[in-house]
Amino acid sequence: MSTPEAQIEELQAGLEMQLPAAGEPDPDPDPESQPAAMRPKSMTIGAVCKALSQEFPDISISKIRYLEEQKLLSPRRTPGGYRLYTQADVARLRTILRMQRDEFLPLRVIRQELAAGRSDAASPTEGSAPARDGMRPWRSSVSVSQSSGARYTLQEVLQETRAEEALVSELEEYGVIKGQLRGGVRCFDETEREIIGAVAELARYGVGGRNLRIFRTSADREAGLLQQMLAPALRSRNPQRRKEAVQALESLAAVTTHLKHLLLVRDLRKILG
């Protein structure tokens, strides 16, 4: 349900869409004078919220504004400063919300995905596992088989993730990350950098390295299970069979991640009653 503030913004935005500012030419000609395909289809923030509420029940005006503050959305503004969203803006917002819900990605990673051209309409990337046998295609947020090989110094990781150095040391102490010494400098790969970034967000709520052993143990067991399932094919000398096994590993990794998220959501809903 729209708040009074949102209703006022919608009303004023609607008026500004109809009336040009004093002393200025009308920026939007009469829609009836334009071809149907060229007519603008801008929506107010309240209309966007209502349009997406069926798929995303927890969507709210404040959440959309927060995503804009995080530079993930850039809606057009009326002369009075009210937001107007194009169909492209709405599609981008839907992509963001799906990445949060389905892949549990933090905003920092979502920003990177969007910058790389990610969209719901985009075709699967090379790191995606193709659908087969009528199964739904699953995309892991981090590729199992592909890595850029990049290494980041401790200072680079701290600057990007805003983590405390003590937190990184704690993660190393509990075996969550390992890091490497190169020329006497501590370095981390891209996956460990993302782990540090995710833990840094949890640290805001008092979660530390000692609390993450349960995640590490769970990950080790899941990796062992997937290895047991695909080991013969992964060791195959047949390039095609090995390629299919790697694709299956990517798919299974994404499926198990999504399954864990669903189980977590189910249990959290029990907490909420």
Walkthrough of the structure:
By secondary structure, the chain is mainly alpha-helical. It has 2 domains: 4-115, Orthogonal Bundle (Multidrug-efflux Transporter Regulator, Chain: A, Domain 2), CATH 1.10.1660; 151-272, Multidrug-efflux Transporter Regulator, Chain: A, Domain 2, CATH 1.10.1660. Helices cover 53% and strands 5% of the residues. A 3-stranded antiparallel sheet has the order 3-5-4. Strands 1-2 form a two-stranded antiparallel ribbon. Strand 1 and strand 2 form a beta hairpin. Helix 9 packs antiparallel against helix 10. The longest helix has 34 residues, at 239-272. The chain is globular. It starts with a helix and ends with a helix. The relative contact order is 0.08.
CATH architectural arrangement of the largest domain:
Orthogonal Bundle
Unreliable segments (pLDDT under 50, ≥5 consecutive)? 15-39, 122-141
Order of helices and strands: HHHEEHHEHHEEHHH
Strand order of the largest sheet: 3-5-4
Number of domains: 2
Key traits:
two-stranded antiparallel ribbon; 273 residues; mainly alpha; 2 domains; 10 helices; Multidrug-efflux Transporter Regulator, Chain: A, Domain 2; globular; three-stranded antiparallel sheet; 5 strands; 53% helix
Write the layout of secondary structure elements.
Layout: H1 4-18, H2 45-52, H3 61-69, E1 76-77, E2 83-84, H4 87-103, H5 107-115, E3 151-153, H6 154-161, H7 165-173, E4 180-182, E5 185-189, H8 190-203, H9 213-234, H10 239-272
Antiparallel strand pairs: 1-2, 3-5, 4-5
Helix pairs in contact: 9-10
